[in-house]
Amino acid sequence: MKVLLTGANGQLGHCFKDIFPSDWQLLATDSLQLDITDGLAVNNFVALHRPDAIVNAAAYTAVDKAEDEYELAYKVNAIGPKNLAIAAKKYHAKLVHVSTDYVFDGTKSSPYLENDLTNPVNVYGETKLAGELSVLDNYSSTIVIRTSWVFSEYGNNFVKTMLKLSQTRPELTIIDDQLGCPTYAGDIAKTILEMLMNDIQGGIYHYCGNESTSWFLFGQKIFDIALDQNLLFQVPVISPINSQSFPSKAKRPLYSVMSMDKIKKYNLSGSNWEEQLISCISKIRSI
Ligand SMILES: NC(=O)c1ccc[n+]([C@@H]2O[C@H](COP(=O)([O-])OP(=O)(O)OC[C@H]3O[C@@H](n4cnc5c(N)ncnc54)[C@H](OP(=O)(O)O)[C@@H]3O)[C@@H](O)[C@H]2O)c1
């Protein structure tokens, strides 16, 4: 199978390249090689290479910055996916697009289902929702995977931020009233490959960690593992804080746990994030 990967230098992109089957053909592109916001470039690339599948790992992911950069975020998160959907449909390629738990407002108290009402509370979520709608409107066979709290040994994420902060800060406050499911980017990559291999039908699927937690408890786990692996010899004193006492430019949903009942029907299992966190920190240690 020939697969076009966009956003190849992001967390998911890197993990996808790491586990890509050696007997398949990968066309891995970063934003310089293929800017997904350029409709003509996308069309020409797909027309020339004729991939069997397109995996869109490209996105504008700076949640706070997006509040000031609506147009750019919209271009990358909504127009880009639309360009890919149009080209995928025209040249008969499967399309897998990745979205986020931030399409929900977080007011539910039980895991979000794929068809629950969306109501993003920030610009990032709004533009990602527009992306979901644009791919499904233009190519209804698109697989949209909503995921959450992504971490890996690559790029920027909560795990790396905590480890970095621990080097200069003896004390840290971490938000304790936002609940979600951490997800290892390598598990998302593996799931995408399995979905392509099994020719799963289009639509929205939730995929995330199989246990929910708060940022505070996630942070605590990171420091426990880092101590265990001798990555840190001293960890900061951490205290829980609520979202109201920790103002950020973009509002975040308080509850973004997603149900994986739908994807589990295809024998796909959620991200065992606690186990993956141990190996991720050991990879960060070796880097
Ligand atoms: N990170 C999270 O916690 C999280 C949570 C829920 C859902 N998600 C979703 O999961 C997916 C993967 O996220 P991630 O964490 O791997 O993101 P990431 O590390 O921020 O990577 C995104 C990549 O997109 C590329 N990109 C940006 N604009 C582009 C453009 N116009 N054309 C082509 N590529 C472009 C960036 O490349 P340049 O650096 O070259 O611009 C970057 O390498 C995204 O759809 C994201 O919305 C992420």
UniProtKB/TrEMBL annotation:
Pfam families: RmlD_sub_bind (PF04321). Its cofactor is Mg(2+). It catalyses: dTDP-beta-L-rhamnose + NADP(+) = dTDP-4-dehydro-beta-L-rhamnose + NADPH + H(+). InterPro entries: dTDP_dehydrorham_reduct, NAD(P)-bd_dom_sf, RmlD-like-bd. Binds 1 Mg(2+) ion per monomer. Residues 1-284 form the RmlD-like substrate binding domain. One of its GO terms (molecular function) is dTDP-4-dehydrorhamnose reductase activity. Coiled coil: none annotated. The keyword NADP applies. It is an enzyme of class 1 (oxidoreductase). GO terms for cellular component: cytosol. Pathway: Carbohydrate biosynthesis; dTDP-L-rhamnose biosynthesis. Belongs to the dTDP-4-dehydrorhamnose reductase family. Catalyzes the reduction of dTDP-6-deoxy-L-lyxo-4-hexulose to yield dTDP-L-rhamnose. This is dTDP-4-dehydrorhamnose reductase. It comes from Gilliamella intestini.
